[in-house]
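User: New here, any thoughts?
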Amino acid sequence: MSYKLSIPLAAALTLSALGGALATEYTKGVVKSVDAGAGKVTVIHEELKNLEMPAMTMVFVAGDETILARMQDGQDIEFVADRVNGKLTIIELK
């Protein structure tokens, strides 16, 4: 009987751990400048854990026009960045 109970328990624990691993982690930053014409933004950011990058100032591509339109110089932001087609890209903005 304990064997039958351990399989559902193991499945539940696995799904719980997987859900935590898939949680979106936002990084805090400050918009230094927006280049709407180029679709890029310069951000002073904290450590990007998912990209294994220390805190620094860098240029990102905006994932889409709506993300870019929501940013302005000097604005505090929380964002998700990832590599898209080899370019560091802001894919989500809180």
